[in-house]
């Protein structure tokens, strides 16, 4: 329970936070069709009752203005761990399943309509109003073989979108302006923070592999140009769909061998938008941020 304002909801003073609930979901393998595999994951859930906890605080008991985090945790665990054969088609399917259980459990605890959950399913958008906002995040450490970690998030305050963070895709490529850098590949770490429309779920594995292949075959002198090329490639990724499902992307490129005694040299291009001219601003530093004008960075909305 938190009494300080949340970074994702300015001015919010009451929240309930379930941090890193360890689960072991079965997710269909992208590399072996028809097979499902166990993938360790950590589920975090932050809830914001809009009316606060005044009654529960006053009477020192669980009144309808708050929620039992134990019941919510049990609801999530039972969905994932109740059946050894239960599997999910994708991380999007897993997110939708957990969202449904969260809403049903909140309704049950509030006694607003506990006996009639009919009509609520993972495809219904938006779910019935429970007067509770939430941020749902799932972290995977080994779901994507090419990346260090995958984080997927959804929030009740921004409908129809999933935030996807693919962290540190390790790639060897030609990058740099020095003579020896033009002949020998070196490691770069590429991270992508993107917003994906829920109605067109993104094939995260396919995007990661596509970025990996594109960067490994590239030859750039500056990290800035490489990061911009990755942003353009990501936004143009079709995902076997007629319509692009990626709304915006933030690209971070780390070059570990760039500066002696420093962990890495980083270039970050936040919130690159399709069909939006790139207008960089910033100063020359080891860690440089390039911010397109006209678009606020909304990545904090999904991360409490």
TrEMBL record:
It catalyses: 7,8-dihydroneopterin = 6-hydroxymethyl-7,8-dihydropterin + glycolaldehyde. Transmembrane segments: none annotated. GO terms for molecular function: dihydroneopterin aldolase activity. Keywords: Folate biosynthesis, Lyase. GO terms for biological process: folic acid biosynthetic process. Its EC number is 4.1.2.25. It holds the Pfam family FolB. Residues 164-268 form the Dihydroneopterin aldolase/epimerase domain. Pathway: Cofactor biosynthesis; tetrahydrofolate biosynthesis; 2-amino-4-hydroxy-6-hydroxymethyl-7,8-dihydropteridine diphosphate from 7,8-dihydroneopterin triphosphate: step 3/4. Belongs to the DHNA family. This is dihydroneopterin aldolase. It comes from Puccinia coronata f. sp. avenae.
């Amino acid at each position: 329970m938190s009494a300080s304002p949340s970074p994702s909801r300015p001015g919010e003073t009451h929240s309930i936070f379930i941090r890193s609930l360890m689960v072991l979901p079965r997710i269909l393998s992208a590399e072996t069709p028809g097979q499902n595999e166990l993938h360790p994951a950590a589920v975090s859930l932050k809830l914001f009752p809009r009316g606060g906890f005044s009654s529960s605080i006053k009477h020192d008991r669980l009144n309808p203005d708050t929620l039992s985090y134990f019941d919510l945790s049990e609801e999530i665990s039972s969905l994932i761990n109740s059946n050894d054969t239960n599997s999910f088609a994708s991380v999007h399917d897993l997110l939708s399943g957990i969202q449904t259980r969260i809403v049903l459990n909140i309704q049950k605890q509030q006694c607003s309509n506990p006996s009639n959950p009919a009509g609520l399913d993972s495809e219904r958008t938006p779910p019935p109003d429970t007067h509770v906002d939430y941020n749902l995040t799932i972290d995977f450490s080994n779901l994507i073989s090419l990346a260090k970690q995958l984080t997927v998030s959804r929030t009740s305050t921004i409908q129809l979108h999933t935030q996807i963070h693919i962290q540190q895709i390790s790639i060897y490529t030609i990058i740099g302006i020095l003579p020896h850098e033009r002949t020998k590949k070196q490691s770069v770490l590429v991270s992508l923070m993107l917003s994906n429309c829920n109605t067109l779920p993104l094939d995260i594995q396919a995007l990661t592999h596509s970025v990996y292949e594109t960067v490994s075959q590239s030859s750039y002198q500056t990290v800035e140009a490489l990061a911009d090329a990755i942003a353009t490639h990501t936004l143009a990724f079709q995902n076997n769909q007629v319509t692009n499902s990626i709304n915006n992307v933030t690209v971070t490129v780390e070059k570990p061998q760039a500066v002696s005694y420093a962990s890495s040299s980083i270039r970050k291009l936040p919130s690159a938008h399709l069909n939006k001219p790139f207008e960089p601003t910033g100063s020359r530093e080891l860690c440089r941020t390039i911010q397109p004008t006209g678009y606020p960075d909304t990545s904090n909305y999904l991360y409490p």
